[in-house]
Amino acid sequence: METLPMTTAKSSERRGRSKQIQTSKPSVVLAFFSCLAWLYVAGRLWQDAENRTLLTNFLKKSMEQRPKVLTVEDKLMLLGCKDLERRIVEAEMDLTLAKSQGYLKNQLLQSGSSSGKKLLAVIGVYTGFGSHLNRNVYRGSWMPKGDALKKLEERGVVIRFVIGRSANRGDSLDRKIDAENRETKDFLILEGHEEAQEELPKKAKFFFSTAVQIWDAEFYVKVDDNIDLDLEGLIGLLDRSRGQESAYIGCMKSGDVVTEEGRQWYEPEWWKFGDGKSYFRHAAGSIFVLSRNLAQYININSASLKTYAHDDTSVGSWMMGVRATYKDDNRFCCSSINRDKVCSMF
Q1: Residue 112's pLDDT is what?
Q2: Which pTM value belongs to this model?
Q3: Which residues of the chain have pLDDT under 70?
Q4: Which of 86, 156, 209, 324 has the fewest CB atoms within 10 Å of its CB?
Q5: Secondary structure string (H, E, C) spanning the chain
């Protein structure tokens, strides 16, 4: 009877030890996973710190290399004006080249200036495809032909009939002009200009731009094909005007702008001339003269120069934008009664 309690005590002791062992295992597992979690979090924090350090260094270097003031190139890029920038640079380069070379002075010149001597004048007589008979009349009157034309060029005066190309390039109209030019050698053919009545205002841009690139002259003269010209009187007048910069010479006039469509001299853009509807001062289109630097101005800026319905008002509008010296000479008024005028109407 005394041994039974001892057995019971031993059994209780074994159960207590087993219970202690069972409760210690989850604690160890929990501690193990806690350690792993701590290591993971510490590793991520360390990695994030490294990334922040690298990013900070990169931004610091970028800020050091970035210009403090926004450049013109950045502004143009933001405004989407890269093409405009390119055109400005090209224009500046062309202008610098023109100035450095005396405005294309070293370009290969045509007959009459091959020696490099500056000419007195280049006279361009406007003509058209249907004006063959008129050209023959001029060649038999005031305009020299053949050897006489060459001798005149030796004196420093070049005369050419000015004409563009047909709308249908290479057609019979173009071929007839080419054949006539091979025989007479007195044409200035404007390859980029379409010879048509509605394109006449643009012809002035092509004439002055082409002439100033080919010939180095003091003056460039535009002449209509419906006037009789006192050539020697014009040469004397221009010779006495040598050295005049920015000279715009002609029979200066102004007049009412024709606003009614269908009438002669109708101006489609009449509304641009204000409530008075009067043209600004400009040289009459029958004949006028530009000095070399004004012809160069037209050549350099031809792409942006605005044309109106008539070539004389178009040229007059271009002269308003520069410091041109207006010379109102009534000897260029072809319909006047002035005895010493250099032109008269046919």
Answers
A1: 43
A2: 0.66
A3: 1-24, 42-49, 62-85, 93-116, 260, 264-265, 270-276
A4: 86
A5: CCHHHHHHHHHHHHHHHHHHHHHHHHHHHHHHHHHHHHHHHHHHHHHHHHHHHHHHHHHHHHHHHCCCCCCHHHHHHHHCCHHHHHHHHHHHHHHHHHHHCCCCCCCCCCCCCCCCCCEEEEEEEECCCCCHHHHHHHHCCCCCCCHHHHHHHHCCEEEEEEEEECCCCCCHHHHHHHHHHHHHCCEEEEEEEECCHHHHHHHHHHHHHHHHHHCCEEEEEEECCCEEECHHHHHHHHHHCCCCCCEEEEEEECCECECCCCCCCECCCHHHHCCCCECCCEEEEEEEEEEHHHHHHHHHHHHHCCCCCCHHHHHHHHHHCCCCEEEECHHHCCCCCCCCCCEEEC
Question: What share of the chain in percent tops pLDDT 90?
Answer: 45
b/e per residue 73-95 (b: at least 16 CB within 10 A): eeebeeeeeeeeeeeeeeeeeee
Q: What is the pLDDT of residues 88-116, one digit of tens each?
A: 777 776 665 555 444 444 444 444 444 46
How far is residue 162's CA from residue 209's CA, in Å, rounded to a whole number? Answer: 12
